[in-house]
Amino acid sequence: MFMILGILQARTSSSRLSEKVLKPLLGVPMLLRQIERLKRSRRIDKLIVATSELQDDDPIEKICQKESIDCFRGSLDDVLDRFYQAAQKTQARQIVRLTGDCPLADPGLIDQIIEFHLRGGYDYTSNAFEPTYPDGLDAEVLTYSCLKRMWKEAALKSEREHVTAFIYHHKEKFRIGNFKSPIDYSRLRWTVDESEDFELITKIYEALYFRNPEFDWQDVLNWLKRHPEMTKINEHVGRNEGYAKSRAKETLC
Question: Going from the N-terminus, what domains does the chain have, and what CATH number goes with each?
């Protein structure tokens, strides 16, 4: 039986909301709230947190040590190399890419994406390639050989900063699986890049966590339907702004 490895990228040096992964969410660092959810995945066999070698990211390693979670440290800017080196140390044939700004990550949905990926025999599968799920529920599954090819061939700065950007630029090189929701919820923003994002996530946790710590994304959706005013808190923030800025700089060069 081959291993499915989850790699959770996390760092403290966010340009928009510094140290967001360490911000207390119901008294616990946001990163740990996400890990708490990811541990419920039935398909991920092993979870590694991949952070940078910068001293600023020492608190992330300390959190991992305290919680007995594997932590790999690598390049800050060449995130693709960091990701590849973290994967290379395991025997994983399939890798799940996750990012530390998604405290509502849904283990059930992640498992569905993994199963869809395996059934289809894809090189790369995502529910964000053509987004139909709320921003913040993103998960990407890729083969080790796909990751190795990206690591060898990616040359643009944006392709090194954003792990799977090479796939988006060279779709013809890969067999791609697109996991879509029957209903388009992509307008909803459940990730954390700005203070308003964190405000919304805090309100969601306060409303749902104490009643059921294992609340899923449908519970969040139903709560927001009862409280539609909450979506206005961060509706002005665009999707994937960091990647868009990287590509814009390359276009201008």
Answer: 4-252 (3.90.550.10)
